[in-house]
Amino acid sequence: MLIFVFFIIVSFVFYFYYKTKQFRATLPIRKKWYASVASVALGSFVMFFGINQLFLFQSTLTYVISGIFIVLGLGLIVYNYKAAKHYHSFVDEETRLNQ
Predict the structure, then answer these.
(1) CB neighbours of 41 closer than 8 A, spacing ≥ 6?
(2) Cα separation of 99 and 87, whole Å?
(3) pLDDT at position 96 over 90
(4) Cβ atoms within 10 A of the Cβ of 62, count?
(5) Which residue, 63, 76, 86, 95, is most buried by CB atoms nearer than 10 A?
(6) Which residue ranges does UniProt annotate as crossing the membrane (predicted)?
């Protein structure tokens, strides 16, 4: 399944991109926002990896481990999406106050 491999690679690239943006940011709320967005990308990486494993191997152990990866990835995506949305509302205000 090349489409899942593509999504795995793209999500890892976004994770790496936002993690480096987090390390280079100087404002604390912006750092938290970048960390949350990076964690969303990490969650999508874990979820797509679990889905890809379902198609590659068909065994009971693979189904259990892939299910854990998918649930963990979805949990990371949902939690950090809410956190990123929360921090995003303060990013503009923080930038304006620190100019």
Answers:
(1) 11, 12, 14, 15, 18
(2) 19
(3) no
(4) 15
(5) 76
(6) 6-21, 33-55, 61-81
Structure tokens at 33: 């926002």
Residue 12 has φ and ψ, to the nearest 5°, of -65, -40
Higher pLDDT, 93 or 81: 81
Residue with tokens 């943006």: 21
Q: Which two tokens stand for residue 45?
A: 């990486």
- Give per-residue pLDDT as tens, 52-83: 999 898 899 999 999 999 999 999 999 999 99
Q: What is the span of the domain harbouring residue 86?
A: 2-97
State the Cα–Cα distance between residues 40 and 92, nearest whole angstrom: 21
Domain count, the chain: 1
The Cα–Cα gap between 97 and 5 comes to: 42
